[in-house]
Amino acid sequence: MKTRDRILQASLQLFNEQGERAVTTNHIAAHLGMSPGNLYYHFRNKQQIIAELVVQYETEVEAYLQVPQGRAMTLEDKARYLESISQGLWQYRFLLRDLEHLVSADPEMAERYRQFSRRCLQSGQAIYRGAVDAGILCAKRTNPEVLALNSWLLMNSWVSFLCTTVVDTQQPELTPAMLRRGVYQVLAQELGLLTDEARPAVEALLAEYYLPLDGVSLQPASAI
Predict the structure, then answer these.
(1) Which residues partner with 137 through β-bridges?
(2) Which of 59, 171, 179, 196 is the most buried if burial means most Cβ atoms within 10 Å?
(3) 157 contact partners, CB below 8 Å, separation of at least 6
(4) Which pLDDT tens digit goes with each residue over 147-179?
């Protein structure tokens, strides 16, 4: 692996484990067993590392938020979207934990992220329209714009919600299962919109992503 890629990988790991504000470039260099000067040869400062990780995150999200070309959407596509969202929430949890602070520190990154968010909202609407066209969601009851906006809000605020409401001295760390529960929340929006044909498969997906959250009185959506 190239040194630049090793720095990005180590930074992502440390930011996720310790929080971006607690990690310095000296910490990253020490973790990699290199001199700070070697790190500065590749990145001028920590902000430049963060900016590149944000670009990496944006690229990965836009790669999976795509409507199938030349065919109708399937429930397998839906499962793939959900798993990709789950993996992204976990892999870049440091970013989603403190998103506003990170992007506001860099005006160029803030503008780029704003445009990225708008593209994702458009992609989300296209995906929900595809679900309607494929007979997964009921056309009369489905508003793709509302669903896309709510889903994007959930994705971007879920880690912050966990850190401020769920994580405590009894459960001091985020877990992948907690992040998967965020995917459940996105999918649960659709329960009242599903067609009869799609309902059994989507309810099975819901069961895969559900996790009870300590201190939060929520029941599985299928039981409501």
Answers:
(1) 194
(2) 179
(3) none
(4) 999 999 999 999 999 988 988 766 678 899 999
How does residue 105 score in pLDDT terms, banded at 50, 70 and 90? confident
User: Residue 22 and residue 136: Cα distance in Å, rounded?
Assistant: 45
- 100 falls in which pLDDT band (50, 70, 90)? confident
For every residue of 114-145, DSSP letters joined together read HHHHHHHHHHHHHHHHHHHHTTSB-TTT--HH
The model carries a pTM of 0.88
Q: Using an 8 Å Cβ cutoff, are 9 and 51 in contact? A: no
Helices (H) and strands (E) in the chain, counts: 11, 0
* Distant-in-sequence, close-in-space partners of 2: CB < 8 Å, separation ≥ 6: none
Phi, psi (deg, nearest 5) at residue 133: -60, -30
Structure tokens at 13: 């790991």
What DSSP string describes 8-27?
A: HHHHHHHHHHH-GGG--HHH
